[in-house]
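hey so i finally got around to running the thing on that chain from the lab meeting. sorry it took forever, my laptop kept dying and i had to restart like 3 times. anyway pasting the input first so we r on the same page abt which one it is
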Amino acid sequence: MNPKIKTLLHDVNAVYPGTVITRVAGEATGELHVDRIAQEVLGDRLLIELAEGTEPDFLFGDELLKMLLTLNGIAPQIFFALTFNDETLDQQLIQIATRMHRTVVHAITYRELHKQGILTANTVTAYLAGVKSELTIEQGDLDDESLWRLLVLLDALIFANASGADFSELSSDYPLAYTAAKKLVSPILEADLKQSRHIRRQIVLLFAGVDDTLTAWGKPTVNAKEYVTLTSVLSQRQLDLPVSQAFTIFHSEMTDFQTKKTAYVGLSKVDSQNSFVISKPENQDSASFFKALYKLKVGDLFKQLALPYINRV
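ok and heres what got predicted. didnt touch it at all, straight out
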């Protein structure tokens, strides 16, 4: 393990409530796949495991940087508090939303890894090989893999920008996905991602942008703005507001995953993003429930829900 990654692991362990350990399970393949990394809780330890041994310093570095951004309250997290009561559909949406969220955060982590000399020419070669192995070449029309190509190329263009690599050859094999991805990553690459609210804004914009692309393609949308709960970034003034002034509450067709009851989703009045999910207690009538909810201070609601938020500075 590169000494810089060892230092990063030490930094994470300094703030993580437990011990983070790492392991490489498989051999190097020459192909880099950013999603073949898993976390597993083992008592008070967290294992970060790579499925393959290609570019382990880069992959561990990326995962550890993302953990630091979360633990230090910089990068908003995503939560999945709703369910369609269809495990296959839920898992598909979770994978898609996680990919989109990571794409924005990677605009921070990839740049840092390149700056630290962890993202090298070898990483670029392996990353490009991984992309090509995951995707089938477009045949001129949209197909069942169009969304997957888009998600992979979104990350690839973020990676190319951070590394200075020329991935323009991907435009000939995947012209539809490449064109759409290039448009969607443009605001991310131009954004100042030093502040949490700017990171959140880019995540929300990407959620909406992917849906706009899918609509234009005549494909079903992901609807991550409703399905995915995204960490709120709130000023003290916003925390002191009544819920009615900060959020719109609506009855979702989905179910509260935790309570298995009818779900009500709190959409931010700033960006219409799912910011919390709540269900009505059985012993309370709807009128009194909503009256009390709307009067509650935002800060008190988040405390009641045990839902983390980021203090806007």
